[in-house]
Amino acid sequence: MFEIPAIILYTIVVVAIVVLGVLVVRGYIKNNPKELPMDEMEGHDFEYYCADLLKNSGFLDVEVTKGSGDFGADILAEKDGVTYAFQCKCYDKPIGVKAVQEIYAGRDFYGRMVGVVMTNQYFTQPAVELAGKLNIMLWDRGYLDNMDS
């Protein structure tokens, strides 16, 4: 009978423990995100915060649309010849399909090439699936935090 050397068995166990640890920490961080300044903002303040992030990231003609009756887009902008419509959601829970539907409509209403939902949270799996089908980009709290760095 073939016997696995102890060092190989030991290495496999250590690697498995490290991988499991990384997965647990990653899950904890996603479910218990660190507090960020954007978490304390009201909706309209968050829109201006997102507009500033876009300006600082090289977007041009960044315009925050009017508060109500915006047809699903909170911010319009352009970068490298590509036009964008953004929907901003500052919530205390995961973002669902409604935000994806809103920016899908807003992107088309304003004749923009790309639609993006920006949030201080994460997205539900149905929202991720719908965004994939409708070619909508999803920028979650980690993405925005990296933009702010």
Describe this structure in words.
With about 150 residues, this protein is an alpha/beta fold. The protein has two domains: about 1-30; about 35-149, Trna Endonuclease, Chain: A, domain 1, CATH 3.40.1350.10. About 50% of the residues lie in helices and about 20% in strands. It contains five helices and five strands, in the order ααβββαβαβα. The protein has a five-stranded mixed beta sheet, with helices on both faces. α3 (about 95-110) packs parallel to α4 (about 125-135). The longest helix is centred in the N-terminal third of the chain and has 26 residues, at about 5-30.
Concise overview:
Helix content is 48%, strand content 19%.
Mean pLDDT, as a whole number? Answer: 86
Strand order of the largest sheet: 1-2-3-4-5
Number of domains: 2
Question: What's the CATH first level of the largest domain?
Answer: Alpha Beta
Strand and helix map with partners:
Blueprint: H1 6-31, H2 43-56, E1 60-64, E2 75-79, E3 82-89, H3 97-109, E4 114-119, H4 125-134, E5 136-139, H5 141-148
Parallel strand pairs: 3-4, 4-5
Antiparallel strand pairs: 1-2, 2-3
Helix pairs in contact: 3-4
Can you give keywords for this protein?
single chain; 149 residues; alpha/beta; Trna Endonuclease, Chain: A, domain 1; five-stranded mixed β-sheet; 19% strand
